[in-house]
Q: What sequence folds into this?
C-alpha cells in the first residue's frame, strides 16, 4: 500500500508560511499583495477553480480582485482589461482563467500579460526562462506544485526515469522541462504515442495529466513507482483522476489522491508566485522567502 502524497496537508504548511510572510510585510508598513483574477463566461468547472483560488488568497492575506466578463466578450475587450491591469501599480499578479471562449485567442491574451505579473508562468518569456533553466521567472503553478509536493516527501528526481502522460501547455510541457532541469530522464507521451504502456511501465515517477478518467491502470505501473495524478474528471457523479487509484495504490510506493493531491498544491504554487511577483514589484526580493 502506497504512502499518500497529501497535497492538503503539505499546502497547509506552505500557506501558513506565506501568511506569516504577508503579515510581516504588512507590519513593516507595506500594502498587501494582490492578484487580479479574470474569468470569461460561465464554465462551471472554471467557476469552482476561480472561487477556490480567491478563497485561498483571502486566507493568507492576499487581496484578490475579481473580473467576471460575459461569455460573448470580444477579444479586444479582454486585451484592454489585461492592459489596464498591467499598468495598475496596485496589481501584482494577473491570472486569466483558461479555457477561454472560442472568439478569444488564448495565446494572444497570454502574450499581452506583463511577464512580471504573469503568475501563471504561461508567457513565452517565463516559459523561455524555464526552458533555459534561468531563475527569476515564474514556473507554471501545477508543475511547481508537483515539485514542492515531491520535495516535501524527500522524493529526488535526479537520474530517475520520469514519464509524463499529456503534453499540454499548462501542465505536461512545462512539467517535463522542469523535471529535465532537475536531472530526470524524461519521456513525454501524448495521443500519438504508439505504445503508452511501454513508457508508463518503465517509469520510476509517473505523472498523468490527460483528463481521461482511469486511463492509468495497475498493469501500466511499475512496482514501487511514484504516481502523480493531475487529472480531474467526473465519472458516475464522482470526482476521479486519470489513475485507477484503488488498484494502483497497491502497487505504487507513493500516490496522489484525487481530490486532495495535486489540486491544492497548484493553488499553493499560485500563492507563492503571487508573493514572488509582489516582492519583485516592491523591491523586497532580498527578504526571506516562504519556500
Ligand atoms: N485552467 C486550468 N488550469 C489553469 C491554470 O493553472 N491557470 C489558468 N489560468 N487556467 C487554468
A:
Amino acid at each position: 500500500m502506497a504512502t499518500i502524497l497529501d497535497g492538503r496537508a503539505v499546502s497547509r504548511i506552505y500557506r501558513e508560511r506565506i501568511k506569516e510572510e504577508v503579515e510581516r510585510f504588512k507590519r513593516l508598513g507595506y500594502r498587501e499583495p494582490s492578484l487580479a483574477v479574470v474569468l470569461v463566461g460561465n464554465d462551471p468547472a472554471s467557476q469552482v477553480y476561480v472561487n477556490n483560488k480567491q478563497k485561498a488568497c483571502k486566507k493568507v492575506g492576499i487581496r484578490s480582485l475579481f473580473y467576471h466578463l460575459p461569455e460573448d466578450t470580444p477579444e479586444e475587450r479582454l486585451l484592454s482589461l489585461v492592459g489596464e491591469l498591467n499598468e495598475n501599480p496596485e496589481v501584482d499578479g494577473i491570472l486569466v482563467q483558461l479555457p477561454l471562449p472560442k472568439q478569444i485567442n488564448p495565446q494572444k491574451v497570454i502574450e499581452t500579460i506583463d511577464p512580471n505579473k504573469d503568475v501563471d508562468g504561461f508567457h513565452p518569456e517565463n516559459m523561455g526562462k524555464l526552458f533555459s533553466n534561468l531563475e527569476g521567472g515564474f514556473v507554471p503553478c501545477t508543475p511547481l506544485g508537483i515539485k514542492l509536493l515531491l520535495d516535501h516527501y524527500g522524493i529526488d528526481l535526479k537520474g530517475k526515469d520520469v514519464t509524463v502522460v499529456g503534453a499540454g501547455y499548462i501542465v505536461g510541457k512545462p512539467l517535463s522541462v522542469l523535471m529535465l532541469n532537475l536531472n530526470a530522464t524524461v519521456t513525454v507521451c501524448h495521443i500519438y504515442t504508439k505504445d503508452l504502456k511501454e513508457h508508463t511501465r518503465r517509469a520510476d515517477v509517473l505523472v498523468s495529466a490527460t483528463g481521461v478518467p482511469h486511463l492509468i491502470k495497475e498493469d501500466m505501473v511499475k512496482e514501487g513507482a511514484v504516481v502523480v495524478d493531475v487529472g480531474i474528471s467526473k465519472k458516475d457523479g464522482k470526482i476521479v483522476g486519470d489513475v485507477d487509484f484503488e488498484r494502483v495504490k497497491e502497487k505504487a510506493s507513493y500516490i496522489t489522491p484525487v481530490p486532495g493531491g495535486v489540486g491544492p498544491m497548484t493553488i499553493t504554487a499560485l500563492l507563492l508566485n503571487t508573493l514572488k511577483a509582489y516582492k519583485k514589484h516592491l523591491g523586497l526580493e532580498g527578504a526571506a522567502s516562504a519556500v
